[in-house]
Amino acid sequence: MRALIWAGLLAITGGAAMAQDIIKVKTDKTVQGAMDALETVVGNAGATVFARVDHAAGAGKVDLELADSQLLVFGNPKLGTPAMQVDPLAGLFLPLRVLAYQDADGQVWLAYEDPKHTMSDLDGVSDAPVIEKMQGALKKLTTAASQ
């Protein structure tokens, strides 16, 4: 019984910790407008956009409804390569991703996972200087796109 209680507590606290590692930036734009702005600032920053996924459109193709939600996948070898040099498994978490979505209240957000958390299980990557650069880039890009 104690094991079940501890497992439950770990699950609850682990979930709370995960939620804190998701960074959300509020915007008054639509999902489409926020993604267009993000794609522009990412390109202007010299990064490459690899994909833009429209989750709501995908849901519609199978007759399901989903609030507006789009994912932008992008990267820059100047940031990604050093992380992968420390541990090649960093490639599982790269390129970077930002989700623009509309919540149940109609508020639009840009959200991403803190790369320090994302790569915390990798040997030495989360403490590498490149992680701070990724954090700074994500903050700068999402802030610019949100305005």
UniProtKB/TrEMBL annotation:
<feature type="domain" description="DUF302">
    <location>
        <begin position="53"/>
        <end position="115"/>
    </location>
</feature>
<dbReference type="Pfam" id="PF03625">
    <property type="entry name" value="DUF302"/>
</dbReference>
<feature type="signal peptide">
    <location>
        <begin position="1"/>
        <end position="19"/>
    </location>
</feature>
<dbReference type="InterPro" id="IPR035923">
    <property type="entry name" value="TT1751-like_sf"/>
</dbReference>
<keyword id="KW-0732">Signal</keyword>
<protein>
    <recommendedName>
        <fullName>DUF302 domain-containing protein</fullName>
    </recommendedName>
</protein>
<dbReference type="InterPro" id="IPR005180">
    <property type="entry name" value="DUF302"/>
</dbReference>
